[in-house]
Amino acid sequence: MFRTKRSILLVCMLSTVLVLTAVLTGCGSRDSNTGSFRSRLIDEKGDAVINAKCFSLFQEDEVVYSGLDGSFRLSELPAGLNNIIIQHNDFALEQYQVEVKSDQETVIDFIKLDKLDASSRISKVSVGTVSSTTAEINWKTYKDLCCNIHYGTTTGYGKYVSEERPSQTHYYLLTGLEPETVYHFKVQYLDEFANSYNSYDYTFRTTSGDAPSKPSFASLNDMTELGVVNISWTAPASSLSVAGYNVYRQVKGGDWVRVNGNVITSGTNYNDIEAKTGVFCRYAVTAVNNQGAESEKTITDLTFIPGVVKEDITLTKADSPIKLFADLIVPMGVNMKVEAGTEFQISERDSYKAGFDEDRVEILVHGALTIEGTESEPVIFSPLDGSGNRDHWAGMRILSSVTGISSVRNANIFGCNGYAINVTSENFRVSGLTIKHSVGGIRLENIRQRVDVADCRFDDIASVAVSINKCFHVVLVDSLITNTAIGVENYTDSSFDQTFVRRTDIYTTNTGIRGVFGNSTIVNTLIVSPNGVNYNNIIKTDGGNIIDHSTIDARNALIIDTGNLNVKNNIFVNTNNTGEIGITYKDSLYYPSYNYNDYYGFRKSCEGCYIGTDSLEIDPGFIGGSPYSYELNEASLLHMNDEFGLELGRYGVSRL
User: Fold this and answer.
1) Are 644 and 654 in contact (CB under 8 A)?
2) Would you list the domain boundaries of the chain?
3) Average pLDDT in the chain
4) How would residue 641 be classed by pLDDT, with cut points 50, 70 and 90?
């Protein structure tokens, strides 16, 4: 009787591995005589392990669970060696080989279970390409280790090979195998105390033919000529029987088509000169031996062959990653749908030097682009290569909604020059958008339908996070802007255009909100900015612009060039007590009064205006903390000083 510690396997894989092992080791030929086995499970402290699942590899129908004292008993076990499996969510999976004698009970006083421990884990053991005489074995270890592979035609193995160099990611080619033979193998390593750690037993079957191993790697290179695709690959690790290669193309949704005439006998790259433009496709390379037998395919990532998308298409997570080497154009009448979990990897160079930005890749939409990510599986746009600068690619332009309304839901965009999304269509929908490390965030221009920019995140934006230009009705709600030069910039020449900023937090290095507003409202918004907040040229307003129940922490909280602005129920503060002016009103024709606000930390509360008879100049009494909270503590007097006798500032209740 002896004990072997095994690495943890996924429960969904366990039954398949155990059944296969049972079949291949010939459990059906055991003696029909039976015995029993009894023991008690404890942890490293000696406490009982309750509700652990226990069964024999050779008698899986009998499953028992350890009791309150950790004990369990398995009866009717076949006489001979039995593999006892013990499973518990909090402990490493254990496998014991126990000698069971006919009509007798084998007893072990206790079995000590180990907590889940990455240091004993050999993971992701898999079998790669198998030929008649070779097999590729892959696995990972928790740190750099040299491992052994024990292999043979039975679970007794009989042969082993050792790695020469330590690694975390392992590959080994077993050679000298017999054709059409089932082999067993396990991976093993010894720790610094000479303790042995083993994987489970795995199997593979060698082939009857002598096909070569497949190429190790295949990829597409930058495309410099329209309709020409260059494929390159790496020869297989074992290439003694390789006489040449074949290259195949598969347009998404279609069959594999061989693109070379004769077998490629020199070099490891090939130009496909008949590639269709405007389609998504993969390429594959196979190795060929002298008898014409081909290896398995080594397949490239899905790639867009630059041009105009020809027909409606749906891209899925299974297509990822999708590589873009040049502009992707969605023409009028075509809808491109992108499902949750899809990832685009974008080159830092536009191979064809076309579009609005000739140096960078961009997505140009004249038809309809529908991005349907989820909160847990967003659609991702990330760099394929380069240093990851914020000007890596040119983002996407939504140019028209004549033949379909584009929408972006739960997408993550990184590293854009200019605005990551630039919309000039008549209609557009967006929510759950995250833009990071880019020159600009999102720009909305001349949109004459309502646009809700909801639940969006903008971080590390060098210029403007949200730019609004002559749009009829834009609502920025439940969003977060951080580490950005300018949070929101608005321009309009119409008093009917509306911009709403609601329940949004803005942290900027320069200005929170600025621009020319028509009929707009900023409510329940937090603005933290060292150099000022609003530069408002309010035109044709008729008193329609409002700042209500917001908290502004800045050197100059509010600067108004001209116009009638209703400012009430707000907290204007400089938490460093180095502020200049709370509200500055520059139009000499008026001297307005702003009621129900609190001013604190400024050299001067107001200039060109009155603080209002119902306003205060006291310390708000924020909770503080790190990160700093702008919520009021329980003792703050501002809990009951808005126009309704309730709380001032960002977290008060607005009636607008």
Assistant:
1) no
2) 2-116, 119-205, 217-303, 306-491, 523-656
3) 87
4) very high
- φ/ψ of 385, rounded to 5, equals -155, -175
Out of 11-15, 347-351, 476-480, 536-540, which region has the weakest mean confidence (pLDDT)?
A: 11-15
Please state which of the four CATH numbers 3.30.720.120, 3.40.1350.10, 3.40.50.1000, 2.60.40.10 is assigned to the domain occupying 217-303.
2.60.40.10
| Distance from the Cα of residue 286 to its chain's centroid | 32
What percentage of the chain's residues is helix, strand, coil (to nearest 5)? 5, 50, 45
Query: How confident is the model over 118-128, as pLDDT tens digits?
Result: 456 788 899 99
pTM over 0.85: no
Residue 161 CA to residue 179 CA, distance in Å, equals 19
Report which of residues 115 and 104 the model is more confident about: 104
Q: Are 241 and 176 in contact (CB under 8 A)?
A: no
Residue predicted with more confidence, 386 or 508: 508
Which residue reads 């028509």 in tokens? 518
Would you give the DSSP letter of residue 69?
A: T
Element (H, E) at 177: none
Kind and range of the H or E element at 24?
helix 11-24
Cβ–Cβ under 8 Å, residues 532 and 511: yes
Spatial distance between the Cα atoms of 412 and 381, rounded to a whole number of angstroms: 6
Confidence of residue 8 (pLDDT cuts 50, 70, 90): very low
Tell me 625's DSSP state: T
How many angstroms separate the Cα of 569 from the Cα of each of 505, 512, 602, 649? 17, 19, 18, 6
**In this structure, are residues 68 and 41 in contact, taking their beta carbons and an 8 Å threshold?**
no
What the block records as the tokens of 364 is: 């140009």
- Confirm if 442 and 454 have CB atoms less than 8 A apart: no
pLDDT score, position 91: 81
At residue 25, the pLDDT reads: 38
**What one-character-per-residue DSSP string does 261-274 give?**
SS-B-S-SEEEETT
Query: Is residue 185 scored above 90 in pLDDT?
Result: yes
Query: Within a 10 A sphere around the Cβ of 195, how many other Cβ atoms?
Result: 10
Distance CA 54, CA 594 (A): 75
Task: Please tell me the distance from the alpha carbon of residue 100 to that of residue 104, in angstroms, as a whole number.
Answer: 7
Residue type, 437: H
β-pair partners for 417 = none
**Strand ranges (E), 533-612:** 535-537, 545-548, 551-554, 556-562, 565-568, 571-573, 579-585, 598-600, 602-607
Which class is 119-205 in CATH?
mainly beta
Structure-token match 């599986």, residue found: 377
User: Is residue 306's pLDDT more than 90?
Assistant: no
